[in-house]
Design goal:
This protein is mainly alpha-helical. It is built from three helices and two strands, in the order ββααα. It has helices at residues 26-85, 91-101, 104-109, and strands spanning 2-4, 20-22. The protein has a two-stranded antiparallel sheet with strand order 1-2. The N and C termini lie far apart (109 Å). Residues 27-42, 49-78 have a biased composition (Basic and acidic residues). Residues 1-78 are annotated as: Disordered.
Length: 110
């Protein structure tokens, strides 16, 4: 609706008057601004939550990778420790072990 500033009346003013303005009640403007503000704040909150979740996922992934590396390093150390503790086996002994551990039919043929 248009409001005639000169007469204070509502409705369309005469076509020759240039003092007509679009009449929007102040409450509607406030409501619209509040709605826009609420929507913007909601979007910003969701964005912050997504960023926080992403940071947590990255942190968790880094922690898992560190634990995995530590576990692998520990396994390697255990394997190396076992190799150092085992007595050296000669070539002949290895052949004998191969025969003993082979399938029974193969061991009988030798």
């Amino acid at each position: 609706m248009f409001k005639n500033i000169n007469s204070g009346g509502e409705g369309f003013d005469d076509e020759n008057s240039q003092a007509c303005v679009l009449a929007t009640p102040i409450e509607e403007d406030k409501d619209r601004r509040e709605k826009d503000r609420t929507e913007r704040m909601g979007r910003e909150k969701k964005k912050r939550e997504r960023e926080t979740e992403e940071k947590e996922r990255k942190k968790d992934r880094r922690e898992r990778e560190i634990k995995e590396r530590e576990r692998e390093e520990k396994e390697i150390e255990e394997i190396e420790k076992k190799r150092r503790e085992e007595p050296l086996v000669g070539v002949g002994d290895r052949i004998g072990l191969a025969i003993l551990t082979a399938d029974p039919p193969l061991a009988a043929n030798r």
